[in-house]
Write a structure and sequence with these properties.
alpha/beta; 237 residues; 26% strand
Length: 237
């Protein structure tokens, strides 16, 4: 089991950049992947521009174990993700017989060219899993192509989630009724002593939340003890 999987998220849609639609998928995927032990290293949002999508995706796929794309896989002219993935990998777009069969089974005589656009995949792509009524997810090498509609994305990801598991992260949290500036030198010392533990500081209106995260639970616990000893009598929240 690989314990150091790194991932990136590519959120696609001009409606996200214009503010017409509020993204819900980043938070969901980041939390799910964290639970599976997969580190999300980057999240990038791009509009409906095939060259921008392809260029960004190529760079992300080269640097990460997994890339999850969201959006742009519907039946309309501005759904460009499949074409962009194909361009990023230097392959053509073809029709997946299984997808075409599912589409024709669902819409029957009402099937149109717009419906069949959703059967297009990059050549070499594989179909993974399938939620009810058995609609699979397209994967091109290390790129998992997910829809933008949050409810559908969640169903599709849940059908595949265990395939990405690679261990787990451990977390300790503590809140102080203090100013972040007062905690800063303490956190710097703790971080220097425990380099394998990621320490986060998140100021709220009346307290500061400190998180300690890492793959090795004893190291996280040791960092927590160092923090507790260093903060002394600082009031907890």
């Amino acid at each position: 089991m690989n314990s150091s999987r790194r991932s990136a998220l590519l959120l696609i849609g001009s409606e996200l950049l214009s503010g017409r639609v509020q993204d819900e998928n980043l938070r969901f995927l980041a939390r799910e992947l964290w639970e599976l032990g997969v580190s999300v290293e980057r999240a990038v949002m791009v509009g409906d521009d095939i060259e921008e999508i392809a260029t960004t995706l190529s760079a992300l796929a080269d640097r990460h174990d997994w890339v999850f794309t969201t959006g742009g896989i519907g039946p309309t002219h501005d759904d460009l993700t499949i074409d962009a993935v194909a361009r990023a990998f230097g392959v053509e777009v073809v029709t997946a017989p299984r997808l075409e069969q599912l589409i024709r089974a669902r819409w029957g005589d009402r099937t149109t060219a717009a419906h069949l656009r959703m059967a297009r995949v990059p050549r070499g792509a594989v179909l993974e899993g399938g939620d009810q009524p058995g609609w699979p997810t397209v994967r091109m090498e290390n790129v998992v192509i997910l829809p933008g509609v949050p409810a559908i994305l969640r169903r599709k990801f849940q059908a595949l989630r265990e395939r990405f598991r690679c261990g787990r992260f451990h977390r300790r949290s503590v809140a102080y009724a203090a100013e972040e500036v007062d905690l800063a030198p303490i956190l710097e010392r703790v971080a220097a002593k425990h380099p394998a533990v990621r320490i986060g500081s998140y100021p709220q209106e009346d307290h500061v939340l400190i998180t300690l995260e890492g793959r090795d639970d004893p190291q996280v616990q040791a960092a927590a003890r160092t923090l507790e000893a260093a903060t002394g009598d600082l009031p907890r929240f």
